[in-house]
Structure prediction request, 293 residues.
Amino acid sequence: RIRSEKKRRKQFNELISELGALLPDGQSRMDKPTVLQRTLHFFSSHHELNVEQETNEPPPPWKPAFLSNDNFTQLILEAMDCFVIVVMSSGEISFVSESVTSLLGYLPSELLRQNLFDFVPEHEQAELRCLFSTRLCVGSAMAVQYNKNERHFELCCHLQRGEVDPSGDAYYIVRTCVPNSLFRLQMSSFGGPPGVPGGPPRPPPCLVASVHLLTSQFIKELSSLEEAGAEFTSRHSLEWKFLFLDHRAPPIIGYMPFEVLGTSGYDYYHVDDLESITQCHRDCELRQSKRGP
Prediction:
């Protein structure tokens, strides 16, 4: 009984330590009541923020009820042929949406903590660095002026694309197909200089951008397919749920896109095809596991 009690206390202390490390303002050493108190405060603030957002921003009536917010956002990004990226003042990529894979050939996990300038041709880096220095430098008078008058802006640049084959070398799109090489970055700046002493810390400055391919490659892909063939394009998540279904599918499979979005593809496949599709699904999961979480 004494051993089990010691084991239980040890597990409890480890959980408290891990919880303290996850807190936004976690210090190196905090006692248990402090950790629990700050955790309750964090969840309470998070809950109040969610309630306020739900109250002030009711869900739009045109959003399908069977789609989660994440799936709906993904569908919008796919339809707009763009992806969302968050870049810190140093150029480090802190977030990128899943739709980057279809446009640049990278998984989001491959781009996180990478530097955006490494994916921009050298002759275009100067303009981008100038933009970062003027709009995101902490304490810069020019940055403050930009943040007041023009938080939203856009620019065009080329971005490096990854090969589908992980062993292949990366290349700049501009070297292969000029019409499809240019991206438009619609950016908004957030954060700023540190707050007053003793006050809540200000978030670090960053740029949030929606990145659009100027010439839609989706239209190009559709036009290259044989119109007479019984073919359509669909996109799936790693759980094999439908994320996208193009306009050619209904006459072939008898389902409208809104009927299958968010549902599992396995609900529609013939039993004779399950083995090959399952193998393809496993290969996709294995490929991502090799690339990391």
